[in-house]
């Protein structure tokens, strides 16, 4: 964790709090990338910044291709939200919980390497 609020498993630049993502994987962090999704359309003119097919104005997460809706408006996208229609259940912690831990990204690897 670099304290930018993005879990290391989802953070392409876990050591740099200012650079939290590289959507198109070209090595240029989204914040510095004039074309964040690499579709050839500069972000300033791009009607769909994450290229997930949902126009920015309808996209609750315009820079997250994995999320486009937040039905209960709690800030957790429907796909990651255990209770997409009821924000009450996860007021305590962002709701990464089950989905993130279950996918096993990142956390386990460090301990394995040590042994
Ligand atoms: Ca990039
Ligand atoms: Ca683009
Ligand atoms: Ca979109
Ligand atoms: Ca939600």
List the helices and strands and how they pair.
Elements: H1 97-103, H2 107-114
This protein binds calcium ion (4 copies).
One calcium ion (CA) is lined by residues 22-24, 26, 28, 30, 33, 36.
Main attributes?
13% helix; binds calcium ion; little secondary structure; single chain; 115 residues
What would your notes on this structure say?
The protein contains 2 helices and no strands. By secondary structure, the chain is mostly loops. It has one domain. The structure holds calcium ion (4 copies). The site of one calcium ion (CA) has 8 residues, from loops. The site of one calcium ion has 6 residues, from loops.
Question: Which ligands does the model contain, each kind named once?
Answer: calcium ion
Radius of gyration: 16 Å
Largest sheet: none
The H/E string reads HH
Through-space gap between termini? 22 Å
What percent strand?
under 5%
Number of contiguous helices? 2
Total DSSP E strands: 0
The pLDDT mean sits at 76
> Which residue ranges are poorly predicted, with pLDDT under 50 across at least 5 consecutive positions?
100-105
Total of domains: 1
| Helix amount | 10-25%
Class by alpha and beta content: little secondary structure
Form type: flat
